[in-house]
Amino acid sequence: MKIGFVGLGKMGMNMVQRLLENGHEIVAYARTAETVKKAEDKGAVKAESLEDMHSKLQSPRIVWLMVPAGKATEETIDTLSLFLEEGDILIDGGNSNFRDSIRRARKLEEKKIAFLDVGTSGGIWGLQIGYCMMIGGEKSVFDTVEPVLKSLAPENGYAHVGPYGAGHFVKMVHNGIEYALLQGYAEGFEIMQASKNFDLDLKKIANLWNQGSVVRSWLLELAESAFEKDPNLDSIRGYVEDSGEGRWTVAEAIKEDVPAPIITLSLLERFRSRQAESFSDKVIAALRNEFGGHAVKKSQE
Questions:
Q1: pLDDT band at 287 (very low <50, low <70, confident <90, very high)
Q2: pLDDT at position 192
């Protein structure tokens, strides 16, 4: 199939390469000419603008977006909607908020432009092993682009999960679960690393747990790789960003009256990681000193 592809970051570029390797034609566009040239070197047709990309596609067109959620996605869709025509298909494969996806789909529907929201998981490994994709939108539109999805995913790695917004909703919850899993592994490894009774090989344990243990997972494989490169993670600062989807998951849980304490706490721990020094910890230390005479460390210690 011939596809317009907008956004050539780490995931986007790898997706373009995987599609090219599977025989699809790609017309690629990104904000920087350098990035587009890299896609061209892999076999894509370069586009110098969104309008140029549109002109190099035949109706009905398929355009896939892999741009940052929020303003960048909004502006790109607004611009594309000036060029796209009845019967064209626009796919958002980024991490957009599902409510935004529903709104955008309805707006595009007025022009008879089809829309799919595709929650995409796989990170930088997707080129090799494929991407897990959760797709929302009309089933008939899903059927039309299924050859593209099949090329991007591993076997059984994609599914139509519901109407507009469902794809990004399921991906949002997926990422919320990811927050909790990461926090659980992190706390467990910290307990072992802090042990004064044993000098444990964390790489060895990560590998061991993947051999039939109930906590085996791909994340443990990645932990083994990380500990092999840097056994005590001395080169890494404990500062953890969030992409926003954990926040959305917690907000949705509150809206639906669903208790989600583990995901919520894992999100709050990410906020905590960004503090050079926690004032709340100072308050606790001061209060312990006041009521129990417990020793406090001075700020210069």
A1: confident
A2: 95
Q: What is the pTM of this model?
A: 0.92
Tell me whether residue 178 is one of the annotated catalytic residues.
Answer: yes
Mind listing the pLDDT tens digit for each residue in 166-225?
Answer: 999 999 999 999 999 999 999 999 999 999 999 999 999 999 999 999 999 999 999 999
Q: Which of 178, 224, 245, 252 is catalytic?
A: 178
pLDDT at 301 over 70: no
* Active-site residue (options: 171, 224, 245, 252): 171
Told to judge if 155 belongs to the known catalytic residues of this protein, a careful annotator would answer: no
Amino acid 61 reads R
